[in-house]
Each structure stands twice: as C-alpha cells, then as structure tokens.
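Students often ask why we bother encoding 3D structure as a string. The short answer is that it lets us treat folding as translation between two languages. Here is a chain of 305 residues written in the first language.
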Amino acid sequence: MSGEGREGPRRVAWLLVLLPLWLLASGAGAVWYFLHAEKHQELRGERRFARAVSGEMMADDLRKLVELIGERHASSESAARNLTRTASMIEGLLGPGNTGYAVRRASGPGEWPLLHVTLAGDKTPAPAVWVVSSYDSRPGSPGAEANASGLAATLAAAQALAGASFPAGIHFVLIPHANDPDSPVLETAARLRDLVRQSGEPRALLCVEAMGADRHLWLSSRDTAAAPLSLAHEIGVIRGVEDVCLSDDADLASVLFEMGLPAVRVATRAQVAPEEPDNTPPDAAVTAAATGRLIELIRRCAARP
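And here it is in the second language, the structure alphabet:
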C-alpha cells in the first residue's frame, strides 16, 4: 500500500485519540470557569438586580413591617414568630431570587441569625464599611421608628448598591436583638463585634435606626474621630450623643463603642423614648429621601482613601 493510502487511516486514528482529549480538556475548562464565575458572582452579587429607592417601595416595606408583621421580639410566642417572619422577609428581599446577594446566616445568642451580605471591594485587603440595623421591635409596639424605618432604609440601601463598585468592601448586617431590653442585646452586639473583627479594623461602622422623621441625617458617635462624621456635609448634621440617645448608653452605636468599635449612629431623630407611641409608619417619601442620603454617606465612606 502506498504512503498516501496509509495517511488517511492514520489521520482517523489521530482524530479518534485527540477528539476525546479535547472534549475532556474543554469540559474541565468550562467547569473551572463556571465555578470561578460563580464564586466571583457570590462575592459581588447580581448586579442586574440593583433597584433605585422609591417612595412606593419604601411605603410597601414599612407597611409590611409595621402593619402586617407587627411586634418582632422574643418576649411572646406571637412576636417571636414575627421575628422569624422578618428574618425570612430579609432573606427573600436580598437573596438570589430578588436582589441577588448570597445571604449568610451567622448564629446569634438565640435562635435568630445575624443576616449578612457583602459587596466586595476593588482593593483587597482594605478596611471595609459596615452598615448595621436591627430587625426587632420593643415589646408592646410594632416598632415603626425602632426599628422598621431603619431596617427598611438599610434594605433599600443594600438593594440600590447591589451593582456598585468601590475601593472598600461594604457589609450589610441585620441583627435580631437591639430594641427589646429583655433580649440578649449585649450578646448579639458581641457576636456582631466578632464578625466585624474577622475582617480587620473597619473603615466605618454605621448603625441605622429611626429614619422616618427628617430628610436629612443625624449623625452621632461617642468616637469623635469616627470617619463618617467628617463626611456629612450637605447630607446631614452632627448631633451630640446626649441629645439623641436620651443620656443613655443603650443605643446600639454606644454599645459597640464600649466594645471598642468606631460606631456611628445614623438616624433622623433622637431615640424613641420608652413611653413614646411608635405604632404609625412614618412618611414613606421622607424615609426614602433620608435613605438616599444614607446611600450617599455609604458611598463616601467606601470611596474615601
């Protein structure tokens, strides 16, 4: 048989050897790319789900928290169920089926988790920005300002920033105990402190509450050198801690400060007094406007050198 005649079968043999190898290599490459892209997507969130703040959206979230869910704490069986419902609502709003974040559940001192989502920064490692809000209420109240408005504002900020990119990473954490004095508030704050310190010293730590009384922010902190205080121009004012915390150290920012963190309280009014009614959802347009300023404050904190 001539050399030319033998060439055809040889080519076929080589193809039979190389084709499976090519399929194996391309398949392995596709799997690697999928896993790599999935991990990258988990860290950065689904950008296509970012949603702008609106009065209509804010009104809907406030109505659900105050009127449909109601009291959210562990001091009664019905309110405990509502606390669980609120945690599920948060996971649904921020999770893969809606905003697109990977929602992590950090165990707390009780049965309710600390819910944590992250926007990865462009410069790693770098000090991160932490935005914290509670999802409970005090007993006997649906907690319109303590803390449905703070929670709704924090959720809206996380949704609005889902597609953003900053030098610093941004962590949003929703905690289950801060307003009910009979709940494990200090233990929950300590768990939050440990979570923050796992990422090193924070660039900023914003504790969001009572966001429905004014369009401009009130910033206060027992750490007078806290970075966000210097970034409030045109979006808020600095208030003395004694004025906004009613001469009490029970607010979350003060508790975290005593634990060694540079926490700043971000709100639009003083703390809700124990005897003050807190049953009516605040004006949604006002809360949405204040939330827009909260988002700008987060942007400034995450972008600063």
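Translate back mentally: The helical segments are 3-44, 55-69, 77-94, 144-160, 185-197, 241-244, 252-258, 284-303. Keep this in mind for the problem set.
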